[in-house]
Amino acid sequence: MTPAVAEALAAAVVEILEVSAFELADLVDPTAPPADALGATLVFHGPPSGTMRMWIDPAEARAFTAAALGLDEPTADAVADAVRELANMIAGHVLGRVWTDVCVGLDGAVLGAPDGGAYPVQLAGEHGRIAVALDVAP
């Protein structure tokens, strides 16, 4: 991942948390995802084509969902929908910032356990971590 992509990923997460959930986040050193982390993967087609992967701490996912959707006690389905939408927002934000002159299509985000790959961009929000990676096909 290039420094420009890493910077765009961090900026996207910070901006989306601020605007959608009224929450601040700071870059932190990468760690492995916790066992209960929620993962999402999103494939994009362009040029460029590739995959955006993320994981989020469950407490952060619930807090994001509650703030973004105005819910006191978000259901598991609401959290799942919000995590998928968060992945879509991050990918769209980054791809539009880094590749400004192309049209890139996004598949829907798929939820699952985080894979064993590296997540070099990690931010700590008020309720936990969000970790993101963007892999571009050669």
Low-confidence stretches: none
Computed structural class:
alpha+beta
Radius of gyration: 14 Å
- What amount of the residues lies in strands? 25-35%
Distance between the termini: 12 Å
Shape: globular
Our count of helices gives: 3
Mean pLDDT: 94
H and E order: HEEEHHEEEE
Percent helix: 25-40%
Largest sheet: 7 strands, antiparallel
| Number of E-type strands | 7
Any key phrases for this structure?
single chain, 138 residues, alpha+beta, 7-stranded antiparallel sheet, 3 helices, 39% helix
Question: What do these coordinates show?
Answer:
- By secondary structure, this protein is α+β, with helices and mostly antiparallel strands.
- Helices cover 39% and strands 25% of the residues.
- The chain is built from 3 helices and 7 strands, in the order αβββααββββ.
- It has helices spanning 3-21, 58-69, 76-98; strands at 26-28, 38-45, 50-56, 105-106, 110-112, 121-124, 129-136.
- Strands 1, 2, 3, 4, 5, 6 and 7 form a 7-stranded antiparallel sheet that branches.
- Strand 6 and strand 7 (129-136) form a beta hairpin.
- It is globular.
- The model has no long low-confidence stretch (mean pLDDT 94).
